[in-house]
Every structure is written in C-alpha cells, then in structure tokens.
Amino acid sequence: MVGYFRKFSKEMNKEKPPEPLDFFIWTVEDVGLWLEEINLGSYRQIFKENGVNGEYLEGMSMFTTEQILRFIRRCHMKWGDFITLCKELRRIKGSDPLPSFALFISLFLLLLLLLLLLLLLLLLLLLLLLLHFSIGSMYFWVVLVVKTTQGYDDLLLSS
Q1: Which pTM value belongs to this model?
Q2: Which of 8, 32, 101, 150 is an S-S bond match for 44, by CB 3.0 to 4.6 Å?
Q3: CA pair distance 112, 90, nearest whole angstrom
C-alpha cells in the first residue's frame, strides 16, 4: 500500500506520505489515489469533478440520509461501493484511540454503578434483617415482661 497515503504532486512524483489520521487534509488528488488503493478507482474522476477532498470525507460521518442519497446520486455510486467507501473511511479513522478509550470508560462507569447498586441492595437487606430481629427480640422481651408480671400479679393476689 505504498500509494495509499502518497501526496500527489504535479511537480514531484514522490513526497513524504501523509499520516493516516491526516486524511482530512487530503487534496482531491490524494482522495483519487486512495480510491485506487481501495479498488474504487472508477469513481476517481467523478470525485475530482465534485471536489471531494479529505475534509469532505471527514464530514460524511455527519451526513443526513438525504445528503447521503444526494452524494450517491451525484457520484453515480452503487450501494455496495458506497458501503465499501464507508468501511474504508471507518478503518482509517479507526486509528484514533479515543473511541475505544471512551467505550472503556463508559463500561467501567457502568460496572461501578452496578457495584454501587448491589452494595445499596445489600445494605437495605441488612437493615431489614436488623429490623426484623430487633422487632422479634422486642416481642420476646415484651412477652417475657408480661408473663413475669402476670406471675407477680398471681403472687400478689394470692397473698
């Protein structure tokens, strides 16, 4: 994939290849070279005529359905080719570690929230058990006191 990231220049045939994450600064010619590399070279001329550069490709992720359909019509693209284009764009954008890091953080926070909910549930269960046993023991003491008192009442009444 030597030509994949090659900067196109009319004056020079070879320049330092741009970084994959810098595709948003690609010229129309760079996009054409990239289309050749991903086997969509048949769209090179129409992309050039429509001024599709790296900045335009970057913005495609924000396109509405209507804008996507307009792009496909304007470039006379087949659906399968458009899907290939999107997959390849996602692949070169995938070099950015932020989305996977954000997903990791989201999952970590979700796990932490579930752990806190479990802890809260255990505390509630403990509170209910303590309440149950304290009511039960209070009932025991009340019964003991009443029975004891009745015994003393019997003693007092008999004397």
Answers
A1: 0.49
A2: 32
A3: 30
